Amino acid sequence: MRRHILLGLAGIVLIGLVVLLFSSFYGKKPPVTISVGDWPRKNTARRIVYDHYAAQIRKKHNIVIEPDEWSYSINSFLPKAAVGKLPTIYNTWYTEVQKIINAGYAVDITGALQERGWDQKLSPLVAEIIRKDDRYYGFPRDAYLIGLMCNLKLFRAAGLVDTDGVPLFPQTYSELAQTARIIKEKTGAAGFLLETNGNGGGWHFMNLAWSFGAEFEREAEGKWQAVFNSPEAVAALQYIKDLRWQDQVLPDHTLIDWSKAQELIATDQCAMKFEGGFDHNGFDHVVDHYNMAKEDMAMGRIPAGPSGRVALLGGNIYMFAPNSTKAQIDAALEWLRLLGMSPDVSPEGLQYIEDSYRNDFNNGYVVGNVCVPVWTDPEFIAANGNIRAKYVNVEPRNFQDYIQAAAVTIRREEPLYCQELYGVLDGVIQTVITDPEAEPQRLLDEAARVFQRDYLDKLNH
User: Fold this and answer.
1) Structural domain total, the chain
2) Residue 19 is assigned to a structural domain of this protein
3) Cα 238 from Cα 439, distance rounded (Å)
4) 26 in a domain, yes or no?
5) I want to staple 353 with a disulfide (CB 3.0 to 4.6 A). Which of 15, 101, 303, 340 is the partner?
């Protein structure tokens, strides 16, 4: 009898071990591999951080990250998308989202967002950008409002700070011209710059023209018209011409794209420029490439024109390759949560947010500016603000004028062919700063005609 009992017990143990072995074998999920675009470049602090995150998510969630340094550009996107070579997750601009959705180059992530409840926490402004037919196709990285970035070293040298060292930000475009003249006279550096290349000229000019009362695209009776050759737009372009030829406060460079503009302001060759204000990533380039001191950075509100302060709302959206599987979408969202970009307010989610701010602080990036919130859940905003406050590493007063954004009218970028419009306007800006005889009205008449013919008329037909 004893022998039968022992054999029975041994059998039970053996069966248990077999069950445990098989459950362990089948329970271990295979790794999920995703490629992540816009991977930070070598020799930057953020690259080291991302490499660490990639190892962390592999260990914790069995997610394999394949870094891809490709960054979105109009010229490279379509060829890459057409042959199915997009990264699983890639970054693009607000202006491109609907075009990408319509072309079928982004997968629907509505279900994944709803499972996490994140769709309910989106800012309505952002939700409208990433949604089509009540389905979501993107995840917001950030949103910015154009403001005035200032080189405080040049402001100090020109005597344009108050008794506490806070810059005397120009509050109108007339004051901006006056401030730029003083800086040029006192320091020899350009007082102000406008980008002129890489679509930056149009991106900058739009803010100025709106503040002068101009419009760019208008729908009438179902047809779209280019209307940026109005007297208001002409006055805005004349203002730029005067900065160049009358005030002589612009840089002696014809072609200034975003990167060149960063170089000029970081190396004390220019004192003011239009810039998007971010919570993260906003000043990475000038820190990584030029070691610009945080003490020399400041942000103010965009100046007021005849029609008030009008600033462009833009930003970056993560989208997901159209061939992404459900497992890859989930893995990509977990990656973004790990980066501290989600609205997750669980203890783990808040820890990821804190890690993100701590990494910025430890690596010398700016913590102290803020962007337009992409998540409007009150619990998240309060928790994020409390965490962020622990890592502020700049003088808050140097950013307060921008942060308060009082009396600023927010405008979204133009709805149709916006990047193409920026490119057309680049040529206009380049001409007006290189030819003292250029006629703003004639330049804008021709630009509006070309934009109408090459783009808007395609829709109208």
Assistant:
1) 2
2) no
3) 8
4) no
5) 340
